[in-house]
Design a protein that fits this description.
Low-confidence stretches: 52-73, 233-245, 412-422, 428-447
Largest sheet: 6 strands, antiparallel
Helix content: 55-70%
CATH topology of the domain at 165-369: Transferase(Phosphotransferase), domain 1
Radius of gyration: 34 Å
Number of strands: 11
Structural class: mainly alpha
Strand order of the largest sheet: 1-2-3-4-6-5
Oligomer: single chain
Distance between the termini: 73 Å
CATH superfamily of the domain at 165-369: Transferase(Phosphotransferase) domain 1
């Protein structure tokens, strides 16, 4: 059959398919004239189309092969260099998959070939899209793409990982997996799908046959043949009027069946069906023996039975029968929330589904379950039985104390105390509601937090009759928005609160001062340091005029001023102010939490100033305090661990730094979620360590994730964005991608210069790294200018003996060495070496670099004794490092 005739058959098929069956033959006789063969071919397709639901799983081209073509499973070739084809593995909608062996390596692969590519340009485009999709996905649970090319006749093929395993449901049945094990495997599937979603890819055909479990228990997700880029889903998915759709109906979401716009919730639905089948050993709907139209009605209009109704009935599997009523109730929620016919009522993302799977496995309340008191209380008591008994006793004592003091207050209160109590109740209640009792943080991993804050803003709008309370709530909610990374919303509310307090109390009042300080904190987060410092100094002056010297508000404002000075890079001034803040908070009624926060910033200042021993001592003290205050898994504890990791990083102990960073990231991400700026900062720190350890691929992925979050929250121009770009530039340099490295580091330099007006040592760090790229380009003149500019900035912002100064001199010396300017190289490298050698814990990697370069310089200057001296130091240091490594 030639191409033109097949095209004619396709056209007539689609035109006839939309007509009532009784009118189809008359239409074909009119359209085909006396060509009885053409009429017969089209009628054969129409009859196959109307037969049963099995055809719903088959694309049009496959039906055409079965009706019109010869044997579909014959091998078209045996050799496809360097691959030897062994056998057919299977046939899908866009081609045939063969098992092949790569002859030079002896490895098995799956070779997917688009047979008869000329049949349909649309099929060919989908085949190409699958190649592009697989090429961009790099995840251990997604089958990898190895190669792609075309045959001599132009037929496209690609080679991918051969996965020898069982479909997910078959694996669980064969191994008699427990419900917990099934959920663990399902969670692996969800992680792979979530990764695809994070790369803007929706699978659209998730089902057990596309999810294989290998013998080692690991998952591989297959067949991205109809996957779709999220940005291309604005146009409704194409569908024929026949039911031959590119999906598997039993697992397809209602919007797929209707041909409506798809989204990540489409895959969530399919995952829900897979989970249902894992729990119940059957699909939610029995579509066997149903015509396509009947199957469609069932899928769109009927509700599935609850998994508990299936799993708990007589004859169910032992794994299902062993579950309690409460466990089944949670599993019902997991499945039916995922499978809700309204996409808006499903889990909003696969990540949200993963969180509830984790909650179930940990016997915690599900986020998707209605928050009834009995449900949450029962979960809590079962997990914390001993603590609950102790808490009941403490509560009884507390009730007695509250009753006693309530009576006393009723007798002694006056108007001033009542007003103070009102203010305190509003603030503490709101902060506890939205921030878990901690004014410095707010858990953002739960979408309901945002919902609650938004609702709180709407409620606050209605408080026009109580403007004082309204102003207080606006400020509190603004601070919550800031902690959640919603800076625009925070700015709006904090400015409203500031204006209201000015109107109510005047510009010379403690209330107005408090609002100034809150707004200053936001400006600091936005890197608007001039305005931040102006606001906090204004607020501090007003507070000192009206409040006692040891009032907590003064200590808090002083601490914020110190942090702003720290963020500006004026470390000596910041250290003095933060020491004053810590003194005030140690002698006043300020909480230990405020003191811990001030000490943290003080430790940071000492770190940035190069006082690593002092910073480490303070951070160890803070870590003990924070664990006592908050427990082991709190963001403040995470910050302490990350700060300790940063100290190890600066000392060149990269593996120890990585260990601290991973601990901190785990806590931060579990508290805030994956898209919070605090998580992005922790990712950046981990990425830095991985870059220095040479783990470039892992580092690149982590840093790109951090950059996306930071640019979304802070915009394109922010110090945190620049910090991440700095590390990405270093990766590009190590990979030899010098154009990319220069672009990213140049952008980091420009961001730092625009933010800090040329007066921060961060600019020097970025300039020095950019100069290193130019050295690799052998553009020594340009590199020298940048190194000199970096040293000039260091002279204004750092102490002369700071290790960054030593590193910059060493790097400049290396540029001279590469340019064969040996005398100048010796002078610079010796300056750097002397500074680094005097550090209490010198960074060994830079000391070794200096020794190596000096040995080479002295060889070139014909001074063998000096060269020998530094080579001996090199050897001694390497021997010492080896001994330490063996002991560890």
């Amino acid at each position: 059959m030639d191409r033109s005739r097949w095209g004619r058959i396709q056209t007539l098929f689609h035109e006839a398919a939309i007509l009532p069956q009784a009118e189809q033959r008359a239409f074909l006789e009119s359209a085909c004239g006396e060509d009885e063969g053409l009429i017969a071919d089209v009628l054969a397709l129409l009859q196959e189309d109307a037969r049963d639901t099995s055809l719903l799983d088959q694309p049009l081209a496959e039906v055409a092969h079965k009706v019109l073509a010869d044997d579909a499973h014959s091998l078209p070739f045996q050799e496809l260099e360097p691959y030897h084809v062994r056998k057919v593995l299977g046939e899908g909608g866009m081609g045939v998959v063969y098992l092949a062996e790569r002859q030079d390596l002896g490895s098995l692969v799956a070779l997917k070939l688009l047979r008869d590519a000329w049949l349909s340009p649309a099929r060919r485009e989908r085949f190409g899209a699958e190649q592009r999709t697989l090429a961009q996905l790099n995840h251990p649970s997604i089958a990898r793409l190895y190669d792609a090319d075309t045959l001599s006749d132009g037929t496209p093929f690609f080679v991918m990982e051969y996965v020898e395993g069982l479909p997910l449901t078959d694996y669980c049945a064969r191994h008699q997996c427990s419900i917990e094990r099934r959920l663990q495997l399902f969670r692996q599937v969800c992680e792979a799908v979530q990764y695809a979603h994070s790369n803007a890819v929706i699978h659209r055909d998730l089902k057990p046959s596309n999810i294989l479990v290998r013998s080692d228990g690991t998952i591989r997700l297959l067949d991205f043949g109809i996957a779709k880029q999220i940005e291309s889903l604005e146009v409704p998915a194409h569908q024929t009027m026949t039911g031959l759709r590119l999906m598997t109906p039993a697992y397809a979401a209602p919007e797929q069946i209707r041909g409506q716009r798809l989204g990540v919730q489409t895959d969530v639905y399919s995952l829900g069906v897979v989970l249902y089948e894992l729990l119940c050993d059957r699909l939610p709907f029995d579509l066997s023996n149903l015509a396509p139209a009947e199957a469609e009605t069932v899928l769109l209009e009927h509700e599935p039975p609850k998994p508990s109704a299936i799993g708990r009935r007589q004859g169910a599997s032992s794994a299902a029968a062993s579950l309690s009523k409460g466990s089944w109730a949670d599993l019902d929620v997991l499945c039916l929330t995922s499978m809700h016919k309204d996409p808006e009522r499903r889990y909003r993302s696969v990540e949200a589904l993963i969180r509830d799977v984790d909650h179930y496995l940990k016997r915690e309340p599900l986020e998707a379950r209605p928050d009834t008191l009995d449900y949450r209380l029962g979960k809590f008591v079962r997990r914390n039985q001993r603590e609950v008994v102790a808490a009941v006793a403490a509560a009884a004592l507390l009730i007695g104390l509250v009753t006693f003091f309530t009576v006393r207050l009723a007798k002694a209160r006056d108007v001033a105390l009542a007003e103070a109590a009102r203010t305190q109740r509003i603030q503490r209640f709101t902060m506890n509601l939205f921030q878990g009792g901690d004014e410095a943080v707010g858990p953002a991993d739960d979408l309901r937090v945002i919902t609650l804050v938004d609702r709180g803003v709407q409620e606050a709008h209605a408080l026009t009759g109580d403007p004082r309370s309204q102003a207080e709530i606006y400020q509190t909610l603004g601070t919550v928005y800031q902690n959640l990374g919603k800076l625009e919303e925070a700015n709006k509310l904090l400015n409203i609160s500031l204006d209201q307090r000015k109107a109510l109390f005047g510009a010379d009042s403690p209330e107005y001062a408090d609002a100034l300080v809150a707004l200053a904190g936001l400006r600091d987060a936005q890197a608007k340091f001039d305005e931040a410092e102006k606001l906090v100094r204004q607020g501090l002056d007003v507070s000192k005029h009206h409040l006692a010297p040891n009032h907590p508000a003064i200590g808090k404002a002083t601490a914020l001023l110190g942090k702003i000075l720290e963020d500006r890079g004026t470390y000596p001034a910041a250290i003095a102010v933060l020491e004053e803040a810590a003194r005030l908070q140690s002698t006043s009624d300020a909480s230990r939490a405020d003191l811990s926060a001030s000490l943290t910033e003080l430790a940071n200042c000492h770190f940035y100033a190069g006082h690593y021993d002092t910073s480490e001592s303070l951070n160890q003290r803070i870590l003990v305090m924070d664990r006592e205050l908050y427990g082991e898994r709190h963001p403040h504890v995470a910050d302490d661990l990350i700060n300790l990791g940063a100290i190890q990083y600066e000392r060149g102990r990269f593996s120890e730094a990585e260990r601290f960073y991973r601990q901190g990231l785990d806590i931060t991400q579990s508290f805030y979620g994956k898209d919070h700026p605090a998580t992005a900062s922790a990712l950046t720190m981990l990425g830095r360590a991985l870059v220095s350890e040479g783990k470039l691929d892992e580092a690149a992925g982590i840093l790109q994730q951090a950059l996306a979050i930071q640019e979304k929250v802070f915009g394109k121009v922010h110090p945190r964005v620049a910090g991440t770009l700095n590390e990405l530039g270093k990766i590009a340099q190590r990979r030899g991608q010098l154009d990319e490295a220069e672009a990213e580091l140049s952008r980091a330099v420009e961001i730092y210069k625009s933010i800090y007006a040329g007066k921060h040592y961060y600019i020097g760090v970025a300039l020095s790294n950019l100069a290193g790229v130019l050295v690799d380009r052998k553009e020594y003149g340009r590199a020298e200018k940048l190194f000199q500019e970096a040293l000039q900035i260091y002279s204004q912002t750092l102490a002369p003996d700071h290790q960054n100064v030593g590193i910059a001199h060493t790097r400049l010396g290396r540029a001279f060495l590469r340019d064969r300017r040996y005398a100048e190289a010796e002078a610079e490298i010796r300056i750097g070496y002397d500074i680094l050698a005097k550090q209490s814990n010198p960074p060994q990697i830079w000391l070794q670099n200096a020794r190596t370069d000096l040995s080479e310089v002295y060889d070139a200057l014909h001074q063998p004794d000096k060269a020998s001296k530094f080579r001996a130091e090199l050897a001694a240091n390497e021997t010492k490092a080896t001994e330490v490594s063996r002991k560890n």
